[in-house]
Automatic annotation (TrEMBL):
Name of the protein in its database record: tRNA-2-methylthio-N(6)-dimethylallyladenosine synthase
InterPro entries cross-referenced by the UniProt entry: Elp3/MiaA/NifB-like_rSAM, Methylthiotransferase, Methylthiotransferase_CS, Methylthiotransferase_N, Methylthiotransferase_N_sf, MiaB_methiolase, rSAM, rSAM_horseshoe
Family: Belongs to the methylthiotransferase family. MiaB subfamily.
Pfam families referenced in this protein's UniProt entry, alphabetically: Radical_SAM, TRAM, UPF0004
Gene name as annotated: miaB
Keywords, in A-Z order: 4Fe-4S, Cytoplasm, Iron, Iron-sulfur, Metal-binding, S-adenosyl-L-methionine, Transferase, tRNA processing
Gene3D superfamilies: Methylthiotransferase, N-terminal domain (3.40.50.12160), tm_1862 like domain (3.80.30.20)
Binding site for [4Fe-4S] cluster 1: C12, C48, C81
Predominant location: cytoplasm
Catalytic activity: N(6)-dimethylallyladenosine(37) in tRNA + (sulfur carrier)-SH + AH2 + 2 S-adenosyl-L-methionine = 2-methylsulfanyl-N(6)-dimethylallyladenosine(37) in tRNA + (sulfur carrier)-H + 5'-deoxyadenosine + L-methionine + A + S-adenosyl-L-homocysteine + 2 H(+)
HAMAP family given in the database record: tRNA_metthiotr_MiaB (MF_01864)
Domain (MTTase N-terminal) ranges: 3-118
């Protein structure tokens, strides 16, 4: 009888990727996924430690899981960054947890499950010397037309508010050859869009593929993107999350040269005040950041920006906060995430005096979010009347509809049959709602009957598919 596996994923896209890979590892052990936690023989919570709220949620979910019960012999595992940060402590607060494992150990999950089944309490939070990626099955499972590909993991930047360098460990870049092989296999399975993932993805510096032309040594993310753009079938490349310090000239120029690189970049700045940026150990100024944004828009005028902000970092004055508001006005974000500063145990900023009172944080967050949402609304509204390339992904809510993504990750609803999934089409946008854009297909790799123009032939050419 197959055993059932339920994974709940918290936090970032790297965790989403990790959960998929855990599921791959366990599939080889006879575990099939289920959507119902109570039916599962193995429940994994893949956790996030970035802010206090995210970490606390794990404990309340654990309580609920325990109360709901499950099949006899059911195992509960806590993975991810809370597991890494709290280790055996988790078993003090929740003794019914069978397995605690950090983000660098999940290639060993089969062994951990086997030991737990024998009644052993398993806690694995070391950073193993072998690289996890070399011990994972190749990710070729067909999961639609877009895929996450981890290219880099960990962080050496040590921003003073952040737990990532402690929970994910030092920066590691996968060799370029392994990444290209994986993407070729994904493309052969119908994947058209890849999201390259890393905590510091633009710091990527992986070993060049054997026999690669050009200078030996490491490849940058720009070099990697150029090679990915040559893979047949790959129509879109995205990457996240980037740091302003690593936004090199070659990467900016790749945005000019590669139509596959989407004109939408998540580039967190956190604050617009140089004093706060310094205290955060960001190692750049607000002006440095603005220069990068200007340069990106020079080479790709349709470049839209997304970002992250923290309000109420220790010592943040009204004037510092106003500097953040000014930066946001200047950049004009398509989308941004903003958070109240949350002191994380073990990080330098948690020990700083001058912590900002919660009411002040709330007030600032409200003002910032009001500004960011008005920018987001204006950005979406500006799509009306535009012609956008859309990658069709899945059936829509109504029969005969498909939903795809714009270059800016907006959901776009069009009339098209399910067979059109995976095609790149051009869509004329008619209306904009809060959650999606609506339009008509006017060209690309699939055409409604009655339309005969091939539209923008560049789309088909770059994707290697002729409509
Ligand atoms: N408090 C609040 N926000 C944080 N982030 C990271 N650490 C903290 C913290 N201690 C935010 C940053 C980062 C995003 C992933 O989470 O904005 O870019
Ligand atoms: Fe955290 Fe800074 Fe590293 Fe990003 S760059 S993961 S914010 S320490």
């Amino acid at each position: 009888m197959t055993k059932k596996l339920y994974i709940k994923t918290y936090g970032c896209q790297m965790n989403v990727y990790d959960s998929e890979r855990m599921s791959d590892v366990l599939a080889a052990q006879g575990f099939a996924p289920t959507e119902v936690a109570e039916d599962a023989d193995l429940v994994i919570l893949n956790t996030c430690h970035i802010r206090e709220k995210a970490a606390e949620k794990v404990y309340s979910d654990l309580g609920r899981l325990r109360a709901a019960g499950g099949p006899a012999g059911r195992l509960i595992a806590v993975g991810g960054c809370v597991a890494q940060a709290e280790g055996v402590e988790i078993r003090t607060r929740a003794p019914f947890v069978d397995i605690v494992f950090g983000p660098q150990t999940y290639h060993r999950l089969a062994d951990m499950v086997e030991r737990a089944t024998r009644g052993q309490a398993v806690v694995e939070t070391d950073f193993p010397t072998e690289a996890k990626f070399d011990h994972l099955p190749t990710a070729t499972g067909q999961r639609g037309h877009t895929a996450f590909v981890a290219v880099q993991e960990g962080c050496d930047k040590f921003c003073t508010f952040c737990v990532v360098p402690y929970t994910r460990g030092a920066e590691y870049s996968r060799p370029a050859g392994a990444i290209l092989d994986e993407i070729r296999a994904l493309a052969a399975n119908g994947v058209r869009e890849v999201m390259l993932l890393g905590q510091n993805v633009n710091a990527y510096h992986g070993a060049a593929p054997e026999g690669a032309r050009g200078p030996a040594g490491d490849w940058t993310l720009a070099r990697l993107a150029r090679a990915i753009a040559e893979i047949d079938g790959i129509a879109r490349i995205r990457y996240t999350t980037s740091h302003p310090r690593d936004m090199g000239g070659d990467l900016i120029l790749a945005h000019r040269d590669l139509p596959q690189l989407m004109p939408y970049l998540h580039l967190p700045v956190q604050s617009g005040s140089d004093r706060i940026l310094k205290a955060m150990n960001r190692k750049h100024t607000a002006e440095d950041y603005l220069r990068i944004v200007d340069r990106l828009r020079e080479v790709r005028p349709d470049m839209a920006m997304s970002g992250d902000f923290i309000v109420g970092f220790p010592g943040e004055s009204d004037a510092d906060f106003e500097a953040t508001m000014r930066l946001v006005e200047r950049v004009d974000y398509a989308l941004a995430y903003s958070f109240k500063y949350s002191p994380r145990p073990g990080t330098p900023a948690a020990d700083l005096e001058d912590q900002v009172p919660d009411e002040v944080k709330s007030e600032r967050l409200q003002r910032l979010q009001d500004l960011l949402s008005s920018q987001q609304r204006a950005f979406n509204a500006s799509m009306t009347g535009r012609r956008l390339p859309v990658l069709l992904e899945r059936p829509g809510r109504h029969a005969g509809q498909m939903v795809g993504r714009s270059p800016y990750m907006q959901a776009v609803v069009v009339d098209a049959p399910a067979e059109a999934a995976g095609r790149m089409v051009e869509v004329d946008i008619d209306t904009v709602n809060s959650f999606s854009l609506n339009g008509r297909i006017t060209g690309g790799e699939w055409l409604p009957t009655g339309i005969t123009t091939a539209g923008d032939s560049r789309i088909a050419a770059s994707a290697g598919v002729v409509s």
